[in-house]
Records
---
Amino acid sequence: MVILNLVLGALLMIGVFSFMERRVSLGALGGIVAGTGVIYAQATLGERMLQVTVGEMKILVIGACLGAVIGVVGTVLVVKPDL
């Protein structure tokens, strides 16, 4: 699952940056929609496959937010897009 998440993240990053080169708002909205869709799909599959408690869900949400922040900041620091 980690490899799949890395591939999805890389594809989303490439897609968002290519859209941002055309129009910044198109890339930003596209990234939000695609990222939300991926998170929703994974949460739905996880809910059906696993029995998690509220405490475990809180940890998962915090982890997902931390991962998103690290991904965005890390990408901007490495790629340094000209906006």
---
Amino acid sequence: MIPQGFIQDLLARADIVDVVGRAVQLKKAGINYKGLCPFHGEKSPSFIVSPSRQTYHCFGCGVHGNAVGFLMEHSGLGFIDAVKDLAQDVGMTVPDDDNSPEERARAAKVREHQITLGDVLLKASNHYRAQLKDSPRAVAYLKGRGLTGEIAKHFALGYAPGGWHGLSSAFGKYDDPLLVESGLVILQGDDAAEQRRYDRFRDRIMFPIRNPKGEVIGFGGRVLDQGEPKYLNSPETPVFSKGRELYGLFEARAAIRKRGFILVTEGYMDVVALAQLGFGNAVATLGTACTGEHIVKLLRFSEQVVFSFDGDAAGRRAAARALEAVLPHAGDTRSFRFLFLPAEHDPDSFIRERGPEAFETCIHEAFTLSRQLLAVAGDGCDMATPEGRARMLAQARPLYELLPDGLLKAQLLVELARDGGLTADVLLHHWAAASARRGDRRRPETGHAEPTPAPTAHHHDEPDWDNAPPPDEAPPEAEPNGLGYDPMDDGTPPDERWRRDKFSGKNRDRKGGFRTDRADSWVKRNSGLAQPKRRPLRTTTSLDQAAWFLAHNMELWLELPNDIHDLLVQQSPPYGSFFSVLERLLHEEGTLPLHAVLDHMQLEPQEMGLGVLVTRLKRLIELGDNAPNATELPKLIDRLRLDQVIDEWDLLIESGPLSEEAKQRAIELNALRTELKARLTRSNPV
């Protein structure tokens, strides 16, 4: 786990103006910087970057965060990758990296080579864009497909001329090995004297493929007239893998945020045409079936995904493969839907013939995940006969077993049993019996293999007397300091932290013995710490109180208004992660006791950054801090709202001249601040 202290150190050392400035053109505005928001379309700047706070905030769409959050939101990186990217920029080493210096050096060399390939690909992209302007035939083709110059610029579309060595005019050394390695040039023949080099892409409209950071990693090319293959992609390279990348994801980020879901189509021409027609939230796989890696990448940007397929047999097969990729990632709070167009249409032709409203209707009427699973399972089955129903259940089982445990899986079992003419208990019993006969050790309720018990360990080693504390000593506990928490608490349990500090190298003499002089001084300094009169450790910030309150009373999450849900889950780690997991647990597990909530939190991936906060809350339990009173919830919500309003107001005032959007927001904030202060005063009379 990356220590929280390191992350704070990293954020203190990084310059958020520099981080954001690579993606957004910023201008000085008072003590802050201002620019056009990269997360939603706007004509006057309302996106503020504060160097003093090291945060960003948009007064138009409300997005906000720190440097790590910006890398996650803008580049689609996970928390760990964002921290590592930022650390690399400022010359820090992430402390959880267990690799040897040789492995780190090798990784740095690989990354440097990838950057070099990216520069080559970007240069080729600029060359293709210049060639498009000089080709009336290519421009006429795009206009014939209904595309404007603005949309061509948005996707950086280009044109590869028909010659065999067109790239030689862009690159001084046409025999540069990087041109072959990047997939731009094909090298034929093993004998150096007889080798031939020629451009991979010739007489094609060029679609640069960009990763979520906006770096060009490959190309797709489409023929203008007749020819095979109609579509041609870059080959696998050190920076490009078709099974992991999605076309249009970089360009679609703002539209995804605005519309709230991602539309997955079958080709990059679909993506560009849909963007032209008002559906800028579309992406496409690159000539491959949808994979689990695609799904993971999509879920970084939205938990609402709609797959669009042609209604022919090929489209149905593609939908079945997408279903298999989706099922392991389905959850009670995620939505996956499947849209099937008439066989004679693709999204472009459908919208042009029937209009955007008809396509919106298709999206809203798309099959849910459960309906698609039932349809795939029932394919080719005569549900009017016992044989057909039995076959359906047999085909459904491997799909059902891909689902993670949760309420969705439980409900699908009931649906499958009902359609199969059985009760859920009978179906579950039958599957369990079949598993037992097959000896595959599967749990019928989940379909997952039982873990093999680990062999019992027998330890005969001598105890570590040198590092063990004396039997008559107990680890001291921290003295209350008025902060509400121990600033030196790095998540280590109290007894282990005491042992670590007391017996660390700094407390030993040159021969490794324990220095009694330091022991005596330590005892003198801390002699009163173990006295029973000490006060318990307490939470101080509104977010600490909210985490403590809702961990005790999960069910009250449902009583909170949606804007408070959004406010809480959008907080910086670890708080946003905590409330996101809490919401998911409530939907998947129902109301849980406090200890169970915190135990679940500790099982979350390390990228959630929950370790320090969970340890702090467990510490409160040890010290006997009582559960908060339920009547305090409205006041806590108002304090959270007021904290947010004051922070946003201060940022506005610091930013100099305001746009019309920002002025309107200032009026709203002022009224809201007055109302909240009055409400809190009434609830806390002096």
---
Amino acid sequence: MPKKQNTAAQRAREAARQGAKYTQALRAGAGDPPGEGATATAGEDDRFGGHEFEYERVTDLFRCTECRVYEVVARDTDGPIKPCTGLIGYGGDTERVYLLLTENPENSHVASLAWNIRTTGIGRAPRYSWRDGKLLVESAPSVVAELVRRIEQITSTIDGRQVPAVSSVDHLTAEAGRAVIAENYAAYVAKYGESA
């Protein structure tokens, strides 16, 4: 017999089937900050395990966009949700390190840079990762050196010459990276207010 879902989960599933972000709707229904653009708090990490579940119309299931695990698998017991191991390229490593990239003023295309990093499969820009020309990137310790190498190769052709996307890469610990996200989130709230 399937587990009875609470009303917030039912509303989130229906919202996802209508095209909304599932984890965002679930967080909003539970009284948490919205998922789109919101920073994860310690409480959210405990309740969602760092997963970002999205609805798959083909399977009618919800799958994490990070680790690709289905929600029914992550929640297969009555205990806490299994933590997200992150991108497949992290190799199941749950440790996190961060890189603080300073954009090259000659080649400032943050969306393109974040997309290029995501396509490596070994790094991603978390929510609230960009502010004042700096982009925070998450990775795992075992692959961060390779990610730095790939980031340093990202260029654009400007005026007939190859211009690097970043001017510097600073390595940060997990704690320092989370502090940057918290600062960026506070700056966002100060400027725009809480997301509705």
